[in-house]
Amino acid sequence: MPSVATERNTSTRRARVLVFDxxxxxxxxxxxxxxxxxxxxxxxxxxxAAFPYGTKQAPDLLRRASAIVLxxxxxxxxxxxVIACNTASTLVLPTLREQLDIPVVGVVPAIKTAAAQTKxxxxxxxxxxxxxARTYTQDLIRQFAANINVISxxxxxxxxxxxxxxxxxxxxxxxxxxxxxxxxxxxGGQDIDMLVLGCTHFPxxxxxxxxxxxxxxxxDSGAAIASRVLALLDRESATGTGHxxxxxxxxxxxxxxxxxxxxxxxxxxxxxxxxxxxxxxxxFTGA
Length: 287
Ligand code: DGL
Known about the structure:
- This protein has 11 helices and 10 strands.
- It is an alpha/beta fold.
- Strand 9, helix 11 and strand 10 (282-283) form a beta-alpha-beta unit.
- Helix 1 packs across helix 10, helix 2 packs across helix 3 and helix 4 (111-117) packs parallel to helix 6 (135-144).
- It is globular, with a radius of gyration of 19 Å.
- It binds D-glutamic acid.
- D-glutamic acid binds at residues 21-23, 25, 51-54, 85-87, 128, 131, 156, 159, 199-201.
């Protein structure tokens, strides 16, 4: 993992982190980062012009996601980048790491943790169709869950429902129920005791999923990503970049949220952003 260039020695500057997703799911990761350290300055970028990513062909997605992330990196000059999208991370990380000299943290399904914790030997993986089909994901399963029954459901419909929900639509509980039933419809599905939320949109409706499947333990990667971000920034701050970290009770810092497609201002979205500590949505003009 590369370290931040040491000549950028701004002794009191806060660490700047760019968090990227196709839509609003990456805000579930921001929430964890902000909870872990309120003094990190976050720029969030949603590539809503190309949303959803989960149904895109791999070469198109690779091209699109790397181009917009590199443009944002140029414009916003973060110290660290988080690809808060399983669908993109399982594809673009090698390209981005090759091209950028800042740490790039990816978000991938927590299959290893679920496989280590399941008591029944059967876990569910709820992700996008792209993530479920990805070689990266299949390798994770082979490597860490070889003796576990991993039942996968890929749903882009659920991603779109959640996105619309944050913009103000009601979440259709019946449709959510039908999506979850796809787990029990597969061999061994009645034995699931853990559900891996392999898309960053899904933690945003963890409560609703738990209401429908109270026996399932839900697992997402948010807290682990926040720890990783802090560890990387802290390590780099120790090497002399001088980022200020961990200022408990820090007040007044507003994060920024950018969107690749101009938005009709949505009161619900801005309310959601505001609760997380973000300014109102802005257009990203660098793409
Ligand atoms: N939030 C993204 C993920 O973690 C995907 C959403 C999409 O399909 O665009 O996979």
